[in-house]
Design a protein that fits this description.
Layout (H helix, E strand, L loop, with lengths): L1 E5 L5 H11 L3 E5 L2 H10 L4 E4 L8 H10 L6 E5 L4 H9 L4 E4 L4 H16 L4 E4 L2 E4 L4 E4 L2 E2 L4 H12 L4 E2 L1 H8 L10 H13 L8 E4 L3 E4 L6
Parallel strand pairs: 1-2, 1-3, 3-4, 4-5
Antiparallel strand pairs: 6-7, 7-8, 8-9, 10-12, 11-12
Helix pairs in contact: 6-8
Length: about 220
């Protein structure tokens, strides 16, 4: 899953990105609102974390603009503005939750997970053939056996399962699983997919991820014998 983090504190932003990345998220960081909204227009985000006090456009204006565009993406305010009136203003601007600085990272992580559970509760389990992914638990099994995946491998597989039977290009995969400025010219994606396939297809299990030469990949049910 992908998070848009809009925070201009140069010490806090890297800390948040590191923590959220360790939780398994892809995190794009911006220090002001205009460029963040430009990226938001072309990228599918699962959640937005935004500070109130920012250079140029403030967090309230960013939140209002996102809602004006018709997006229902969960928004979490992360700010030192701590009065009741501030919280009301933030929520009325369209935010779904409000965390006051200073904060504990475990609490922030728990609130983010709660927002995502509410949004994605109808699609908690993804399946194909004998493979099952329980998204909230970050658990994958095949033929009933646990498959241990890294955060990136889990994110790649989740994207494939949510788009099964569709062509997935390298560009779309990098856009949804890596940061916005990721260099698609490296072989990182191919290496991760190779590792993922080796874990999913070990033994006599039939392949689920197929290469479409010159185009990308497709995840589909194995052909019946």
């Amino acid at each position: 899953m992908r998070i848009l983090l809009i925070e201009d504190d140069k010490r806090l932003a890297p800390f948040l990105k590191q923590g959220l990345s360790q939780d398994g998220f892809v995190v794009d960081v911006f220090g002001e609102g205009e460029s963040a909204l430009t990226e938001f227009a072309s990228t599918r985000y699962d959640l937005v974390v935004v500070d109130w006090k920012l250079p140029g456009m403030d967090g309230i204006a960013i939140c209002q603009e996102i809602r004006k565009r018709g997006s229902s993406v969960p928004i979490l305010f992360l700010t030192a503005q701590d009065t009741v009136e501030d919280k009301i203003q933030g929520l009325e601007a369209g935010a779904d939750d409000y965390v006051v600085k200073p904060f504990s990272f475990p609490e922030l992580s728990a609130r983010i997970q709660a927002l995502l559970r509410r949004r994605y509760a109808p699609v908690e389990t993804l399946t194909i053939d004998d493979l099952e992914m329980i998204v909230p638990e970050r658990k994958v099994t095949r033929s009933g056996e646990r498959v241990e995946l890294s955060n990136k491998e889990f994110a790649i597989l989740e994207y494939f399962l949510r788009n099964r039977n569709r062509l997935i290009t390298i560009a779309s995969l990098s856009n949804h699983v890596w940061e916005f400025n990721f260099d698609t010219g490296t072989n990182t994606i191919y290496v991760h997919i190779a590792h993922l396939r080796s874990k999913l297809d070990c033994g006599s299990k039939k392949p689920l991820i197929h290469t479409v030469r010159g185009a990308g990949y497709i995840c589909k049910e194995p052909e019946k014998q």
